[in-house]
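ARCHIVE CARD
SHELF: 3
SLOT: left
DATA:
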Amino acid sequence: MQYDATTQTQLEDRRGTDARVLLWIRARNRETGLPEVIGFWSGDDHQEFLIDGELRTYFGAGNVIGAPPIIVQPGFMVRNYRLKLPPFTDEVKTLMQTYEPRLAEVELHSCPLDIDTGAPLGTPLRRFKGFLNQAPEERKKGGVSYTELVMVSHARLLTFGLPLKRSSAELQRRNPADRGREYIDTTAQWTVSWGG
């Protein structure tokens, strides 16, 4: 993990750390079909952050955004991350109703804060990249309501099989003599007696 000099100095002082979570979502607009973006962060007010040379606006959700610690680890394990948003803000309504949240691309960044002033310190670091898997809403009368975003890492794409290897027509297109899956469409309908 590469920190900038200012953040590294604060970490080396060992006086404590503070950070905010930044959530960036790229989803398809339901009406136009075009990709659009929206950002949320666990700060109090809307703020712009420079990330990868792009100035992004994040809507402040304050303490109402429920963000557990982000665990960063290498490897091909499919990681899940759950984050809670308040369901009744205009920005969350836009995400859930105007955009198509399913399979939207997501990025999570960690923004270190100055331990003395509380101002953003250094450049936000990306901690998670993946896509939105589910977004169930929990509405409780007299209780705390929220929208839970269930995100999965890009490693999940490695678990999908290749459909080109499952079709008899595709196998024969590559090799006309390949008859390995010739009866795949009808084998589920066969009845075979025990021991037959």
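SLOT: right
DATA:
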Amino acid sequence: MASPPFHFRKFSIEQGGAAHPVGTDGVLLGAWTDISACRKVLDIGTGTGVVALMLAQRLSDRPENEAFAITAVELHGPSAECARGNFARAPWCDQLILVESAIQEFAVPEAGQFDLIVSNPPYFSGQMRARDPVRRHGRHDDTLTHEALLDCAVRLMKPDGRFCVILPPEQGRKLCEAAIQKGLFCNKETEVYARHGKPVERLLLRFENIPLPFERNKLVLMDGEGARSADFQVLVSNFYLK
């Protein structure tokens, strides 16, 4: 059964055919990522297009009103078609480009380099497989291992660019270790908790080519009464409907 449309303040996401509906991971990545000095952006594995659209909204809201372009790459055909439609209906349709391709095939010199690369990548490996083949495509790293993701990021990121991802803690730590071997350094890490006293559920990670001073902080999503925490509300206030 297709998920219903998801309505944000300035755009809506139709979700029919997508391997994954809109979820908290994508929203966190789209709201958390540093967009300063970014004009050329790449979204790897765009799915419904939600992260690309959130970044487009944020880039269009900048006081300097700089031109920008976002390229979103998606291998899964139905997801690509879903994102293409969502982009076409968005206020920033002229600045959004959908490429239906594996990122490994896209990452050639002709693609150029990007100020910012983002990805909400698949993270299951080995025997951890979803039964539904559509969901398995979005969650399992058969089509995009983390080593391949890093290789593509290295090829496509400008020397002063940034690469931002969201992953569960175990996979995120492993990505940080593997990134060092590729010359990428994690300079910022935000640990995401559902509630105070719960284990960390996700890591938001920012990689750069230069080992800058490391910054670590925490984000708790819900308060003791199950409502959005003040910090989470500030992060997403420009996107979620009241």
